[in-house]
Amino acid sequence: AVLISSFEDEILSRHFKAHSAADLEKSGVETLILVGREAARHPELESELRANYGERLTLLSYELDLDEAAQRNQSRLHFFDDASKLCADIRIHPAGAHHAENSAFAIALGLHLGLSVEAMQAGLDTYSVEGDRERLENIGKLRIFHDYYNAAPASMRAAFQSAAFEEADPSLRYAVIGGVLELGETASELHRRIASDLRRHYPLPLDHVYFFGDYAADLADGYAQALIAEASRERGMTQEDAEAIRQTCQLRAFDDVDALKSALIREFNPAGFYLIKASHGYQMDRFAKTLAECASGTDRNE
Predict the structure, then answer these.
(1) In this structure, is the dihedral angle defined by the CA atoms of residues 22, 23, 26 and 30, taken in order, positive or negative?
(2) pTM score, two decimals?
(3) Which of 25, 60, 121, 179 is the S-S candidate for 215 at Cβ 3.0 to 4.6 Å?
C-alpha cells in the first residue's frame, strides 16, 4: 500500500515524526509520500522524517504558477523531487490553490507508479467541473461564478481564492454569500470567520457584497470586524467609526429572498463578476436567475 499525505499539515507532521518505518510496515504501508508547496519545505522536518522512514519516504514539492496560465482558469504545477530538482511540469484546470493541492496528490501517485508526464497531462485534461461547482457562466459582459452545490468553511475560502483569480479587478467583483449548513454550536463564529476570509481572499467594495440567510447577520458582523481591523492597522479607528462600519455592514445582510432580489436588480452591473456561494439548501440559483434576467434585459435595451 502507498500512503500519500501533506507535509504542510502541522498535526500530520507531528504524527509522522512520532512514528517510524516499522510502524508503516505493521500497517501494511510500503511507501510514504509527502507532498506540499516548495516554499513550505522545512529541512529540519525532512531530516527527522528521513531518519524515521529511510527509503520508504518520498518527498515531492510543487509550485503553483498562475502567471504563465495559457488562458483563464488554468495554471501550471512545477513538481520537484527530494533534491528540489524539477521532475514534472503539468497544466491543471481549473485554477486555484485547492485544486492545485488535489492535483498534486494525483500527480504524486502517478510519478510513484511511473506514469509519464504526457499520460498524466492527458488524464488531467479530461477533468471538468459539473453542476454548480465553480461553474463560470458568461452572459454578454456579465459573468456569474456559480458555486452553491455544497459548502464548508474550507470550500468557501477556496471559492473566494478561485474567484479572485478569475477577476483581478476588485471594482468589478461582486459577492452573493449565503450560509453553510450543519455547523453545530460553532456556526455563528464560523460564519464570522468565513466573512473574514472573504475580505482577505476576495477584496471588493462593501456595496458589492450581499449576505443572505439565517447567518447573514453573523457574516456581516465578521466582515465588519475584518474591515475594522484593516482600517485600524492603516490609519487608526475610533469607536464611532467602528460602529458606523458595523451598521453599514448589517445593511448588506438579507434574510428575505425578495429583498435581496430587489437589491441585486437595483444595483446590477451588466459588466460585473458575481460570485455566488453557499450551501445547496439556500437555493442560491434563484439569485443567479435574477442576475441572468437583468443581463438579458440590458442586452435587449442596448
Answers:
(1) negative
(2) 0.72
(3) 179
